[in-house]
Specification:
Blueprint lengths: L27 H6 L5 E6 L2 E3 L19 E8 L2 E8 L8 H5 L5 E2 L1 H4 L5 H19 L11 E3 L4 E3 L6 E2 L4 E9 L5 E6 L10 E4 L6 H13 L3 E12 L4 E10 L11 E7 L1 H9 L11 H10 L10
Parallel strand pairs: 1-4, 9-13
Antiparallel strand pairs: 1-2, 2-5, 3-4, 6-7, 7-8, 9-11, 10-14, 12-13
This protein binds zinc ion.
Zinc ion binds next to loops.
Length: 309
């Protein structure tokens, strides 16, 4: 294939100047709301709105923004950006949506592959941060309600003064190949027939990336691996992961699936994979995730070019 499928992975752009020093200014949000040059990304139930031409809607501040959870995302090309987050999912189009050129609210999953890279970064940052706020309203030390400070980047407990920071959970995701360069793919128990992907799992406390890869592959399939290499990562704010993409070489090949997690696991040669997709027995994944890109990198072609015959 012409280029590395990991080189244009959605949500891996780093163009935002996160401008962390400004977060400490307690007047920052008020100042930015009063400045018509500020741009606001509005999130409703984790969804954002697109303009009719398909780019992310970034509008000037409105008075109602002060009633939402406000997050300072940083500066993009020198322009300060806020996320204004409302917990409720938007209903059917009403007056407000019509005023936004009837733009529908969409999920990041729906649009991340098509958005300009810096807009996918803005959306992913806002979504990951608002997901964290939605799940961390109470102090883990004393159970009191926490308050939002540092322009949305810290929650502080007014009772014991403890400060709590946004969480990102590292997860490993790995393309495991054997001596014949066959790829190990598996179907989770909750997935429909024909949906296969590379193995993945969360990194545990006290564990390295390589340790997590070896443990997860063995737990899920009983395959032992070595030659573990990190190849690329991808923020995955659904709700709070950072996917650490790796490759590994299998030193054993017998498959024993972990019954409460893996419905089936198989070794695929490239020819078998293409044949199974053509026959409709394996469904090629969309190109949003690093999982799909790891398969493409092994296969040597794009998954969206494969079609059932
Ligand atoms: Zn507390």
């Amino acid at each position: 294939m012409d280029h590395d499928p990991l080189s244009d992975l959605p949500m891996t752009h780093s163009a935002i100047d996160r401008d962390a020093p400004s977060r400490a200014d307690p007047d920052l949000l008020d100042q930015l709301l009063a400045d018509p040059a500020t741009r606001v990304v509005e999130l409703r139930g984790g969804r954002a709105s697109l303009r009719p031409d398909g780019v992310l809607l970034r509008r000037p501040p409105e008075p109602a923004d002060a009633d939402s959870l406000l997050l300072y995302l940083g500066r993009l090309d020198g322009v300060a950006h806020l996320a204004a987050c409302h917990p409720q999912t938007p209903g059917p189009p009403v007056d407000r949506e019509e005023r936004l050129d009837a733009a529908p609210f969409v999920t990041l999953r729906d649009v991340a592959t098509d958005l300009p890279a810096q807009e996918a970064e803005l959306f992913a940052t806002a979504l990951g941060l608002t997901n964290w706020h939605a799940r961390h309203g109470y102090c883990p030390r004393c159970g009191n309600e926490t308050e939002v400070v540092e322009a949305g980047w810290v929650r502080r407990c007014p009772h014991d003064g403890s400060e709590h920071y946004p969480r990102t959970d590292p997860a490993v995701i790995m393309a495991v190949t054997d001596a014949s360069d066959r790829l190990l793919l598996a179907r989770n128990i909750g997935w429909p027939e024909g949906r296969f992907s590379v193995l993945a799992g969360f990194v545990e406390p006290g564990e390295t990336i390589a340790g997590a890869v070896a443990r997860e592959v063995f737990e899920e399939t009983s395959v032992e691996v070595d030659d573990i290499e990190f190849v690329a990562d991808q923020p995955w704010p659904f709700p709070a992961s950072l996917m650490l993409g790796c490759t590994a070489r299998a030193t054993t090949s017998d498959l024993v699936c972990q019954p409460d997690e893996i419905a089936e696991a198989r070794w695929f040669s490239r020819e078998e994979f293409r044949t199974e997709v053509a026959a409709g027995r394996v469904k090629a994944a969309g190109r949003l995730s690093i999982a799909a890109r790891l398969v493409e990198r092994w296969l040597g072609e794009r998954l969206d070019g494969l079609r059932p015959r």
